[in-house]
Batch of 2 targets.
Target 1
Amino acid sequence: MTQVDTTDLARRQLTQPISNGAKPARTPETSGPPVASEPPRVWVPPMAAVMARWPWLVAGGVSLGLLSAIAPASGLNDATATLQMTSANLDSLRAKQVGQTIERAVRSEPVIAEAARTRNISPAALAPRVKAQWVSDTDLVTISVTGADGDAAVKDANSIADAVIAVNERQSRSQLEQIQKESNRLLTSGTLSDTQAEAARRSQLGSNVGVRQDSATAASTQVALLDPAVESRPAGVSRQVRLMLGFIVGALLAAAAAILLPMNRRRVRAAVEVRALSTGLRVKRASGAVGEMAGRMVEEGNQDLAVVALPGAGDDAVQFAESVARIVQSHGTRTTVLNATNREVGEVLLTRDGRARSRKGDAADALIVVVPDDEWALRLLEGQSALRSVVVARSHRSLMGDLWRVTAALELSRPLVVVDR
Amino acid sequence: MTGDWRTARWVAALFAMTVALQRFNVPGVSEVSLLLPVVIVWCAWGLMTGILTVDARRFTAWLLASGVTGVALQLQLHFVEEPLVSPSSWALFMLTWSAFTLRIVHNDRRTYIRALDSVVRVCLVLAVACVVMMVSQFSGLAYRDWFAEIVPSPLLLQGYVITYPIEYGSPIMKANAWFGLEPSIVSAQLGVGVLAALLMGAPRKVVLLLLTGLVCTVSGSGFAIALVGVVVMVFHPVRRMLLKYVAPVAVLTLVAANTPIGRNIFSRVTEASSDDSSTSLRGLMPYEYLWSQWIEHPLTTLLGRGSGSSQVLVSDSGVLGLLVPTPVKIFFDYGLVAGLVLAVFLLICYAGGPSRAMAVSLLVSMWLLQPGTTQIVLLSLVLLMVTLWSPRRSPVLESVPWGGQPRHRNSTMSTPQRQESLV
């Protein structure tokens, strides 16, 4: 394997006439639109983008979580009392109905008025701060009162509970009184003239009244205070929940940013990550790529290979080229490695005719040309499908944007991306 | 098995589960449907087996919507007067819609039609069950909730009206196929079945059976879906396929109109004007009830009252049957800014599906008539019929004019399907 400074070679080729009298080769014209110097818009799989930028998720989650946790709370306090319903006939459906009825009754005008009177405040000041909830699948109803003063909230909750009990008892008594009034009215009216019949009538009425009173009592629902409010706690969402919520929300927003923000300035890391971020690209580590590329050159008879060096990977590209040439040479194929970083030289070597003359001049069967990722080189390479190409990137030095720009230009030659550590 | 059969069976299996398991709840959590973890696990399995993949656009939109609404939640706690914030309500919302970030890999037209075929088969079973339930009642066999008698109550989803009489005082109950959550939900599922059958040119008897089952539910949900879908189809070349159904549907309509069920359905066409009608309670009154509370304070309008607040206030209203439609839920709970971001994400989930009729009808239904933000039993219809197939690979199904094609192998549909080359 020979590494040749092509300056002389290129100069000889450009100045000496060709032996068959043909005109000297000219610098190849560039045609078609110029290779974009800006990296193309690349679609990065969303999950790959999130995985690649996972530290953002941690940072976003921790930041927003801490902010949420340390932010001052609303300043309000919550006090809760619990009522229990009891009745002779309280199946699950009836319990739900009664529970929901008591829920409404807690915020009804008679209850609020009575509680406000006890607390010596206006009903309008109390009503908006009261909430009630039937606890599903139980016979319990909770009463919550919110307030700036925790002790006052406790007293308000207990006064509401007492008011519900009192109003419920009054309603039960009122029902019994109603039965009594109706019975008295019946007893005093419709008197029969026959004494025995009248006695029987009164006896029957008395029995009926007893039955009705008994039924009314059995059917009524008693409400008792199971658990009075003792102390208040900060209202709203607890600090722990705010912390967790902030962490989750921060991570979600960071994930969205990881997907939306371009990755052109991201440095190449590992081959597996480049493969995940670049759909459709063939990516390998240098150690595996050398053998593959040499094998293809030998088996497929491709004569030439262009090794494009991304910024920061110049030495790696030369080393790769020499490694491939060594293997190809060992299979009996005479190979020359040419460093075409000079534009004058490169513009000759990257044309088909130029390479043919180089092979002839060096008596080589194959050429491996190391080129930079400059626009002039990519423009020469982009239309050539017969020339194999490899793009060499250096881990933690080369940029993803440069890699995408170069591979987009070399699309026709289906480049192999090699990531060197 | 080719990829498209796997996909069609995956869709059919999930649809069958949403029909069969709709009355179950997560053990220990009486208000969370069992369908939610079922859908998530089934989608995860689809991801692992290559049937599904992550859709970049919807995934990013979901992340943004979740993040922005989460930030709104935090701001509500500090700046909104009397916030009613429920973090669990927010989490349920985002978790429910996480499945909508996925996409079917083999989302070609042929696979979609195969999936429609499978959905129609499931709906046929549902329709037969509804018809049997109705016929048995008219034959003198009183309705009994056999399902609730067999399944332990801790496993049953609460908060739904399983069924109720077709009219006041009638002993005949609206059909829910016994295992349906509500007649309106069964009706919505059958409505999707009818539309699927029309889109794939199913035989007339199939469509008639589905429509008969739909009638037995005595609920407008399914009719709304089917009718809006048909209107969309009328504006596309596929309208010629509808001609063969006109006569039998007209006959069915005439027959139904002379039954108590049919009269009940027809009487509901103009029910929106009545305050206590189902349509009004779903589509009009929630706005009237919550509007003043939303605009009361500028910060409430901007930031929202809190996740779950609209439901709490509606429940506290004491108005039986008052529901929270999607626009109310979004903007009342999360405010203008976060609500807009969330609305954009939700609307993206309806865009780009293979069938315009299906997308438009479900959009109209979920946004105007149904509480369609966290009810997975209804949202699964959107997921399976629209979102998972988006973005479509070819023009919409309705743009293909009618033509014969070889039968699908193993399909029970006897009518020639769409042209293979157009699929």
Target 2
Amino acid sequence: MKTLEKIFPWGVLTLGLLYVGSMMFNSPATGKKGFNLAGYELIPVLDGGRFKPIGSFARSTLTIISGKQTFIDKDNTRQPAIKWLLDVMSSFDLDEDRASGPALDHKVFRIENEEVLSFLGLEPRSGLRYSLDEFLPHFKQLWERAAKSKEKKNKDLFETKLFELVDHLTLFQQVAYKNSPATVVLAMRGKDEWMPLGKLLGPDIPLENLKQIPSAYIHLYLLDAYRRNDPENFNMVLEKAQEILKKKVPTGGDKIEFEVFFNRFEPFHQAAVLYVFAFILGCLSWLFWFRSLNLAAFLLAGLAFAVHTWALLARMYIQGRPPVTNLYSSAIFIGWGCIGVCLVIEWLYRNSIPTVVGSALAAITAGIIAHYLSLSGDTMTEMEPVLDTNFWLATHVTCVTLGYTATFVAGFLGIGYVILGLLTPILRGNGATLLAKMIYGVVCFATLLSFTGTVLGGIWADQSWGRFWGWDPKENGALLIVIWNALFLHARWAGLVKQRGLAQLTIAGNIVTAWSWFGTNMLGVGLHAYGFMPAAVTWLIVFVITQLAMIGLGFIPQRFWMSFQKEPPRPAAPSGISDLPRLPSVSKTSITASS
Amino acid sequence: MNPTTAIQANPPAANAPPPPGQAGAPIPSLKKDRGLLYKTLEFCASLRITVVLFLLSFILVFYGTWAQVDSGTWTAVKEYFRSPVVMIPLKIVFLRAFDIPGSIPFPGGWLLGGLLLINLLAAHAIRFKISWKRSGILLIHAGIILMMLGELFTGLFAIESRLTVTVGNTVNYTEEDRLKELAISDRSDPKVENEVVIPASLLAKGGLIQHPELPFDVEVVRYYPNSDLRNPKESENNPATTGVGLTKLAVAKGETAGVDSEQAVEIASVYVTIKEKGSRKSLGTYLVSSWHSFFLRPPEEVSVDGKKYALNLRGKRAYRPFSVFLKDFNTNFHEGTNKPKSYESFIRLTNPETGEDLDVKIYMNHPLRYGGETFYQSGVYGLGRGTILQVVRNPSWLLPYFSCGLVTLGMLVHFGLHLTEFLRRRIA
């Protein structure tokens, strides 16, 4: 190998490390002429049942309203969520009854529905984000229209989208009136109670008395200093505030600081970027420089995996919970599991297929799907009573999620079989058999994990409400995955299907898993007579169609597949064929169906 | 390295038994008698049939899930999984995209389970030899047989009921959710309460109900298995002629769908005309609704021959030899929110027959096992004034635990063997 080829993978790894490092030491938010916004992010508050930095609250609230953690202000500059929060909280002065200040001009309200836009007298624009000021004239009509259809059970698209906007406005109001989050801590009945500042403001409690409470005084002062554009005093009081408030957090202030760091780093976003590059490098490795690009892809995916792992552990530390507690964390975990399994397989087989498959899966689940799931707010909320058990969360939920993961990996390897076999020469010779072996191994794992996970769920149900198996939609979804994996294994042992058929079966397994993961949740929600479906249902259907298309492609007779051509193919790519992956030799044993 | 020499010249056919004399060959007597019995067993043991049965089970579970969009989980379970045949509505077959009338028959859970059991047992009789290599699969299959039997027994024998008690009170009965009854109680004697109950199945049939044990005749005007109460409008026809039925009207409500995020209990109501025995004189038409006990209202009363009888529509009640006294009930909330974190019931269970006196804390994921039944923290009653405990009697409750242990062990053995084989070959 030439020298350049030899050092290329390490160069790529270095670039990756630099990228990650630069994000880690991401310069914190500095806003309006010297206000220590980075410091303000660290202030602890209580919201949704957990203690968090106010920075997290700002980010998740802005995400709900706007879909992003940043916003564009009047001067077309991108600003951080914490600035938005301060602007909103200081937009209602104690004496005034109206809102004023820059918060009204921030384009944060995302309105996608055309009917709603025209109802509010707005024109569609790129980004679809509008400021309160822009539709303030139609405010009254908005509330009246919403009140009219409030009790309707089956709202149409217009009404649903209208209510989304109303929900966001209500959230905005809550923050503006300082009714959310809980920032003030009072000693009541022998223990510390946290409550929102807004609850204590008003004619009943004289301001002078309120100022006697340290946390209330701090927040009143900070908001006032911010409004008056007084960064010096703001920063000075902020420093003292940190010391006082940190002590009041029962779980200790360290987690709060760590969470702010975690938010700024955005590790899942970084990992997703690295996965995309690893995917590209892996695909390129089949065209030229195989050894070099294969290693580069592997190293980059490995780096992404390390970042991803760190991020998972960080979440576990912050929440004090096992890794999977809600739909968002399940997406993150599945992505992690996929790339983890694929890195192991890649290490064993070294033909870039696992790296490519794993990176694609990780980017899709932990990147795209997780992003969409994060739009509904805080991803680390507390849970309902039946889920308040770390043991079962760590065992059943983790196991079932790993079962999903393995079934997806097998399914995407199956897609790899069809695509690579049909369109490339990579699966010539031993290649197809190797890939089939990979798939078989992963399905074995999938069977074990999905079965054990499902059964653990049954035991949990028995311990919780006396019924091991209730045949409810979510349970049935998990059972379908077990049955499908078992069907694959038995069909293989019976010799009913060969390699190509087995690949197609695993692709169908993707559909089954997607159904179990998302479809079962949508049954009660998305299917109404009005003909429109929530976006998630549309995406699920699109996914199913793509998988069916893959299965369909698999039915093309194999004599037309590039990898199974009888005559050697004419060199199509200029430099690829001579440098094709050198696959390790395998001692082949013909497997009989049973016994 | 010769990659291809390992191909066997004549690979043995999939289902052929090993030649006699080799370890684990099927019992010679069976082999000699290659008559109808063996051929039938061979057919039943076919791996192809296994795959087909898996596919059919898959379809059944899938449609049994979709059925729960319109009907309750309980109904869907009864029709799809705990029956030999199910009529699947075409509407469900097409995933509710088209509203086509009619339905197609499909094998139900019991039929498919039975066939799978036969297939499995036949396969073991014909093909499987007892060997270390096969031990994993034997364990897995044994475990699965146990699990399917467990589900069968649960379907046949399990009884689920609930025990609702408010703080400071004692209760000595449980009520079933799904079976209901109209209870007519005579409370004239302070020491003993005499009850006669009419099961809901008779109420659903409607018409006149007469029985020597009943103090009067009961004519069912209307029975709603699930209902709502609301204020009657002027124009509406109100069947009730007396009592609370004059101020509240019961209206029918559909079954709670299995996919509803709020699994609301079904609350029944019935309009009955009470008629004097013999003279058939009407004493009034009453609305008797489970909503009344839900709201802790005193039951409707009918006077006959100077005696007062209480009318109560409730879940099928079973009186127990023990009593449960609720000392206290706690709801813990997530800090600073209205979101409940956990519920705790502090009860005292006394049994005069056995002399037992137990102080127990029942909370989520920590049930009480007593007298062959298990008591679970199910929910809150009346915003924290009381607790709802789920009481389950299921003699086969341990079967799933055994079966899961067996199957998991079997899988670890089987796939573990595969894995070590694979790794050994790679290292070689």
